[in-house]
Amino acid sequence: MVATLASNERIEPFKLFILAGEPSGDRIAADLVQRLRRTTEVNLTGVGGEALAGEGIQSLFDMNELSVMGWADVLPRLPKLLWRARQVARTIIRKRPDVAVLVDAQVFSAIVAKQVQKAAPDIPVLLCVAPAVWAWKPERAQELTPRFREVMAVLPFEPAFMRKVGGPETYYIGHPASDRLAFRPAVPERGPMLLLPGSRDGEIRRHLPLMQAVASALTNHPSVDGFIIPTPKRLESSLREKVSQWGLPVTVVTGEASKSKAMADAVAAVAVTGTVTLELALAGVPMVTTYVADKGQAKRWFKYAVKFASLPNAILDRALVPEVLQLAPDAAALTSAVLKLLDEQGAAELQVAGFGEIRNLMERGTAEDPRVDPAERVLRYWTQK
User: Is the pLDDT of residue 302 over 80?
Assistant: First the structure.
């Protein structure tokens, strides 16, 4: 139906404004653009990184200005972030796209959507990647309803949770990593250890010393054949300079092909909680997750009694992967958890079996909320005009 409408009834290209605020959202946004182009011509504007640039976007500004998390990182940049939000909203209002899709960057996207809704309520604004209302402050879900026409969720349980807490109409679209990454059902006896300290500047600052300590402790472990840090292109040179001082066999790689190969070869991974933990699970890589929280993040954890911080555990609603959550860096605790994963018989295999469950669920969705094509969700606002 979409192809017929695009070819016979619509002569002008589909005008899409899309915004991504960090590398994981950039990949999701680029996947959406590719899906749209299978059926129609797309006129693309917005904000993005390397992946969207590959689709031809000329970003309004450097996407990495939005890549912040925690009040310690946000507060110094707040005036500029608010200015950028006004810039994005004004651009959407002026260009009048057929649809605007805001990918992740939750607080920033909500500010933009509110301004667009006030000035041009006829422009459909969609949120892609639901906020983690299942983890903390579920009342946020109701605040989204007047701002977004719908939410496209990348976790299979989120549509049902949104209905439960009174959020906007939500559909499960899956995650492009499940299509991009091959699942590895067996763990190699020996291979590189992946170190994933995050992609935001604040995360790198807090977690890279922890990764160095873990690497130092595991250098002579019989299962570990060196260390690999997959990272976005913009961080490649700075990370290489930093790890060159470690005196350890560490390789920094960039690009999706290098990251996929690293996951295929790895014996295990140490990763900050975030989207990368889902990618590791979809690839079948055993892991230990960690996060060093600032005061604001820690306050939310305690206030809302967050059950799970890592996505594999949240999806299965059970403690499958270790979560070493810290208020102050504790390298010994993190190293201990990694050694237990490597040395305890059956520990890695137990994780991989659980990752198989996640893979099946991510590919299909639930009986109540099966996986749908995000391009179809977006194009319906165009074809119904």
Answer: no
Over residues 26-64, the pLDDT tens digits come to: 999 999 999 999 999 999 999 999 999 999 999 999 998
Side-chain-side CA neighbours of 234 within 13 Å: the count stands at: 15
Domain locations along the chain? 2-174+365-383, 180-362
**Helices of type H across 120-175:** 140-144, 158-164
What's this model's pTM, rounded to 2 decimal places?
0.88
Domain 2-174+365-383, CATH class in plain words: alpha beta
Q: How confident is the model at residue 70 (pLDDT cuts 50, 70, 90)?
A: low
Q: What are phi and psi of 251, to 5 degrees?
A: -115, 130
Distance CA 136, CA 40 (A): 39
Give me 48's structure tokens: 């993005």
Q: How many CB atoms lie within 10 A of CB 86?
A: 12
In sequence order, what are the beta bridge partners of 349? Answer: none
Tell me if 2-174+365-383 shares its fold with 180-362: yes
Q: In the CATH scheme, what architecture does the domain 180-362 have?
A: 3-Layer(aba) Sandwich (3.40)
